[in-house]
Write a structure and sequence with these properties.
With 172 residues, the chain is an all-alpha fold. It has one domain. The protein is built from four helices and no strands.
Length: 172
């Protein structure tokens, strides 16, 4: 049985995780859009003879960099909850959902899902920083590709989540 203090702490942690979820959802959407855009650009330049080899190599390198982010940022298989254990177990979206569900369900503080809170909270800003770095590279590459009449639509950078410190309630 959890004490009132443990329940309050777990609730505060769940709300911190909840505050991270919109930013991870935005990062996932940006990753998906960039993956599609790079696939379209790759197809477009394959049929062009006027695109220099170094530009083609830049598209290929960026495509690999975006693909490397997929385990953390690709949408989890099976929908929003991570697919019930199927699919992408590294997805931050799925991991944040599991941690929040465990915290709000009042699972034992020793439960692995609850202990994942710290790890997921630390990984989220790094994942957002990584996608934003790739978006910046894609913006530069998009300008270069435009010279060869190839469009690479680049998503806007993802805003870093703002997680407020839990508020203290006045004692009654």
């Amino acid at each position: 049985m959890l004490t009132a203090v443990e329940r309050k702490r777990m609730y505060d942690q769940a709300m911190e995780i909840h505050a991270l979820q919109p930013a991870i959802n935005d990062a996932t959407a940006a990753h998906t859009a960039l993956t599609r855009g790079l696939a379209d650009a790759t197809t477009a330049i394959a049929g062009k003879s006027d695109v220099p080899a170094d530009v083609k190599a830049s598209v290929e390198a960026l495509t690999k960099e975006v693909a490397a982010l997929a385990p953390r940022l690709a949408a989890p298989a099976g929908g929003r909850g991570g697919g019930g254990g199927r699919g992408n177990n590294e997805s931050l979206s799925a991991k944040l959902g599991q941690a929040k569900n465990g915290l709000t369900a009042g699972m034992s503080p020793a439960d692995p899902t609850v202990s994942a809170y710290t790890e997921d909270k630390a990984q989220t800003p790094k994942a957002i920083s990584d996608i934003n770095a790739v978006i910046a590279k894609a913006a530069t590459l998009s300008t270069t590709l435009a010279k060869y009449s190839v469009t690479l639509t680049v998503p806007a950078p993802v805003k870093a989540p703002v997680v407020a410190a839990p508020t203290r309630r006045a004692a009654k």
